[in-house]
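Tokens as discussed.
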């Protein structure tokens, strides 16, 4: 049905210039699972030019050959092909340095001997290193020319620590060369949200309180702590997922049309959404938020332990949160936006489900169900539109809801690039559209901070939910109080 689409050429973008990409934290989980695979892919496709170099910063005493063997093993485990891995390894070298100490960066400085190349430093390190690392790189003279600095999330753990990082970074390089990653922005379907909204007049005209009853944004994961127990237990679901990924989805969903696709035009509109979010403060957290922590349960028939067992101790950290938000603007006034995210849920699913208002008057005996548009971010990325149809042959116009299901893979075929593939090449190209500007990050913390303060005062203990469910019953109660119910994501067997 969508065969003709597969023959359309992909849009051309400006070529990626030759670069030196330096990764601090090159032996870490993020580098091994996300950054290296993305680079293998981009190099094998010829997107990153051959002359480019990847330099990993490590602190261990292991030899370069040993480090490369370790990287090759991890990449093979992830299903990447040996010739592609070899091609990546030819461009990869390591230097030993402490990224927070400029005195240790002599070798790195010597390695970066071509000022004509685009130079980017990726801090895939614990976030408490962002300030000392930025200063040390500056002190070593490495942030000159057109150098770029890439910062991973989470940027701080509240507004004041985020500001401190942003201030320190601003002292060593301008905002135009600072790339704050939120990898959700690199996901194809998240970018498709811009196209869906602003390249189709059909939707934009209905995109407001006039036609939309409510919106549900779900980012559900089946994984638990993985190997990040210490990090996660200090952070929790609100800081780990809502402050960044979930609020970014909300921004792209709700923002006004930007005048152009320029980085600042898009980011100006996103920041307006964040600033218009109605604060949830004090005791309101009991009404408009839910905290949860998973107990033992089963996912897809497999038993999984509870959070405290995985962690090895009791904890008051939330692994699930649901919020009822409102955006105080003319476009969105009165439209509840329900957000929920959690670990160890019944299915992995990220989606934005939009429920439109019911018809004002039904001329049928059956009441038509409201139209629903589901923007599926992952898995099975695509767009589903539910509307009412007549049951064929039904004499009295019997109505049923049916869904038009447009899936990315069916529409386009081929492989969908991982978010980091897109983001890494955007840094090298110098395109900041899919990166968070400092005011965005700070506005997001400005919304999240009062919730955390309210939790500390009034809501210290999260409710329990069984692993494999979609969160605690209190989250169901929160939406049912409004006479609505959660859209249950499809559970995969
Ligand atoms: N892993 C993930 O899926 C995600 C991670 N992130 C963020 O990415 C960053 C990295 O996370 P992750 O890879 O999981 O963490 P890891 O703990 O696995 O890796 C951290 C890396 O930083 C290195 N490092 C620490 N201190 C220094 C230093 N002073 N100088 C040089 N290198 C140093 C470590 O080297 P050494 O081995 O010598 O200690 C290690 O390679 C964090 O900010 C995290 O929040 C964000 C999203 C997802
Ligand atoms: O940033 C993070 O994202 C992952 C989820 O990313 P996804 O691309 O797999 O949806 C999450 O598991 C992790 O806790 C968080 O730090």
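Sequence:
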């Amino acid at each position: 049905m969508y065969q003709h689409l597969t023959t359309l050429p992909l849009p051309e973008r400006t070529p990626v210039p030759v670069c030196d990409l330096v990764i601090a934290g090159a032996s870490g989980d993020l580098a091994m699972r996300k950054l290296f695979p993305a680079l293998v892919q981009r190099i094998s496709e010829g997107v990153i030019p051959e002359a480019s170099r990847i330099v990993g910063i490590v602190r261990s005493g292991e030899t370069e050959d040993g480090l490369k063997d370790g990287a090759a093993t991890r990449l093979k485990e992830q299903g990447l092909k040996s010739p592609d891995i070899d091609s990546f390894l030819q461009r990869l070298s390591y230097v030993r340095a402490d990224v927070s100490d400029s005195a240790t960066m002599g070798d790195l400085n010597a390695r970066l001997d071509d000022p004509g190349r685009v130079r980017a430093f990726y801090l895939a390190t614990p976030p408490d290193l962002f300030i000392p690392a930025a200063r040390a790189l500056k002190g070593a003279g490495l942030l000159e020319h057109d150098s770029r600095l890439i910062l991973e999330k989470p940027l701080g753990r509240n507004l004041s620590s985020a500001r401190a990082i942003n201030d320190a970074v601003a002292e060593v390089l301008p905002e135009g060369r600072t790339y704050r990653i939120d990898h959700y922005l690199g996901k194809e379907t998240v970018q498709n949200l811009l196209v869906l909204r602003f390249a189709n007049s059909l939707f934009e005209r209905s995109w407001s309180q006039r036609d939309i009853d409510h919106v549900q944004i779900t980012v559900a994961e089946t994984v638990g702590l993985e190997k990040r127990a210490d990090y996660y237990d200090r952070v929790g679901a609100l800081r780990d997922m809502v402050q960044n990924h979930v609020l970014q989805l909300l921004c792209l969903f709700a923002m006004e049309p930007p005048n152009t696709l320029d980085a600042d035009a898009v980011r100006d509109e996103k920041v307006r959404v964040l600033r218009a979010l109605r604060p949830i403060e004090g005791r309101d957290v009991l009404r408009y938020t839910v905290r949860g922590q998973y107990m033992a349960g089963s996912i897809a028939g497999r038993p999984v332990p509870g959070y405290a067992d995985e962690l090895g101790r009791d904890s008051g950290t939330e692994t699930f949160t649901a919020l009822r938000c409102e955006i105080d603007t003319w476009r969105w006034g009165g439209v509840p936006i329900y957000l929920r995210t959690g670990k160890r849920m019944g299915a992995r699913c990220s989606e934005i489900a939009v429920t439109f208002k019911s018809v004002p008057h039904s001329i049928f005996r059956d009441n038509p169900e409201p139209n629903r548009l589901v923007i599926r971010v992952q898995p099975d990325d695509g767009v589903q539109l539910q509307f009412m149809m007549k049951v064929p042959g039904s004499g009295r116009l019997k109505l049923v809801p049916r869904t038009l299901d447009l899936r990315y893979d069916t529409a386009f075929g081929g492989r969908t690039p991982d978010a980091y593939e897109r983001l890494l090449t955007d840094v090298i190209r110098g395109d900041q559209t899919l990166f968070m500007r400092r005011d965005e990050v700070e506005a997001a913390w400005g919304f999240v901070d009062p919730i955390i303060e309210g939790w500390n005062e009034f809501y210290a203990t999260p409710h329990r939910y069984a692993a494999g469910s979609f969160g605690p019953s209190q989250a169901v109660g929160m939406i049912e109080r409004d006479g609505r119910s959660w859209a249950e994501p499809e559970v995969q067997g």
